[in-house]
Amino acid sequence: MRYMLLIYGDERARETRTAEEKERGMAEAVAMMEEANRRGIFCGADPLQPTSAATTVRHKDGKVQITDGPFAETKEQLGGYIILDCKDLDEALEWAARFPTSCGGAKCVEVRPVLPMPVIGKGTHATTDVHG
Fold first, then answer.
1. d(CA 56, CA 104)
2. Is residue 132 predicted with pLDDT exceeding 50?
3. What is the pLDDT of residues 3-50, one digit of tens each?
4. Per the confidence metrics, is the pTM higher than 0.85?
5. Across the beta sheet with 77-85, what order do the strands follow?
6. How far is CA 112 from CA 89, 94, 117, in A?
7. Using CB atoms within 10 A of its CB, is residue 6 exposed (0-12), middle (13-18) or buried (19+)?
8. Right CATH number for 2-113 from 3.10.50.30, 3.30.70.1060, 3.40.50.10490, 1.20.1070.10?
9. pLDDT at site 131
10. pLDDT tens-digit profile of 6-15?
11. Cα separation of 114 and 132, whole Å?
12. What's the chain look like in SS3?
């Protein structure tokens, strides 16, 4: 079962970190992902640009509205994700607990099962199969 680990943190705290703190946090996150890759469960990961780079598309009264920024102001912003192919939720939670808090001011990691999405005409998942 694939699980998405959604990494939330405080963008303002991330912006105030020193170059050394950023490097250390990234190194810790990469080490975790490399370990997941060695175990054959790593499917993908990406950090996200800050919410100031976001654009939100809404549907209201049959019309499309496009606005700059996120849907809602929050204390924690989505900063990135990791997708792991774990045997069960307990394993996914163990990996989420290992995500370094030093990486980008991470405050919490939300764990969500990924629903398989077939690609029309191919019968495979919409995401890339990195296992071969």
1. 23
2. no
3. 999 998 888 877 888 889 889 888 999 999 999 999 999 999 999 998
4. no
5. 42-47, 77-85, 2-9, 106-113
6. 9, 13, 15
7. middle
8. 3.30.70.1060
9. 39
10. 998 888 877 8
11. 19
12. CEEEEEEEECHHHHHCCCHHHHHHHHHHHHHHHHHHHHCCCEEEEEECCCHHHCEEEEEECCEEEEEECCCCCCCCEEEEEEEEECCCHHHHHHHHHHCCCCCCCEEEEEEEECCCCECCCCCCECCCCCCC
Supply 28's token pair: 């810790």
Residue 72 amino acid letter:
A
